[in-house]
Specification:
The chain is an alpha+beta fold. The chain has 7 helices and 9 strands, in the order αβαββαβββαββαααβ.
Length: 245
């Protein structure tokens, strides 16, 4: 859920009590927060986080927040939360920023270490679906982080358009949602979220980006030249640690 831990406080702007949050239209912002559990503190973290969610509900926070646990890879055991689908301006109008930070420190911060706060922009034209923006999270997500060589972003996104066309011809293909990093990490980074209904989803569809470009040599060259590295991990949705408006 929304909070302002110490390194975020400087970026948060409070909204005057009489003003209304900015929710006029769906947006393309995606704010993510990552936490590594202190040793043996996962249960206490979750208990405190639930209390923090209660604070936000009591203060009628208009933002929706998702929570996930990373289940594999180097970051296995980390907790991720995110607010997506709002305009970027919505984060200029967060409720009681000082109280938010105080409640987070009182209930949560002793049990986890903040590990990053990347902010992305949704690439709607490269995506085949937007489950999170539509408030319809899947049970798990296959999450791929792609590092692209600087100056190669246009070629990479051109290849994504080809992959999208191929996906649209695949019966039963799960939603693929692409984001580009705006701030909070090394440039240039992209993130792909593939909606999965647990492991059974892979029986119905298991295609890599490269395989989707098999019939387009130019797109294959674009990907081969543009991509520096990529890693993939599984995120499990935690409905009890989420608050969707």
């Amino acid at each position: 859920m929304s909070r302002c831990h110490p390194f975020l406080l400087a970026l948060c702007l409070a909204l005057p009590a009489h003003a209304a949050p900015s929710q006029a239209a769906p947006g393309h912002a995606a704010h993510f927060y990552l936490y590594r559990m202190q040793t043996g503190a996962a249960d206490k973290f979750e208990q405190g986080y639930r209390q923090h969610l209660a604070w936000h509900r009591a203060h009628r926070d208009p933002l929706s927040w998702y929570g996930w646990t990373i289940e594999d890879g180097e970051r296995s055991g980390w907790f991720v939360d995110a607010s997506v689908g709002e305009p970027f301006a919505a984060f200029d109008h967060r409720v009681d920023v000082a109280g938010d930070g105080a409640d987070f420190r009182a209930n949560v911060s002793a049990y986890a270490i903040p590990m990053g706060q990347p902010t992305y922009v949704l690439l709607r034209e490269a995506s085949t679906g937007t489950p999170l923006e539509n408030r319809k999270p899947s049970a798990t997500m296959q999450v791929t982080h792609v590092h692209v060589r600087l100056g190669m972003e246009a070629r990479f996104e051109r290849a994504l358009a080809v992959a999208r066309q191929a996906l649209q011809k695949e019966p039963g293909a799960p939603a693929h949602t692409w984001y580009r990093l705006v701030t909070g990490g090394d440039s240039a980074q992209y993130m792909l979220l593939v909606a999965r209904d647990r492991w059974a989803s892979y029986d119905g569809f298991e295609r890599s980006l490269g395989s989707l470009l098999a019939n387009d040599e130019a797109a294959q060259r674009d990907i081969g030249d543009a991509v520096q590295s990529a890693t993939t991990e599984t995120w499990r949705y935690r409905a009890e640690l989420s608050a969707l408006q």
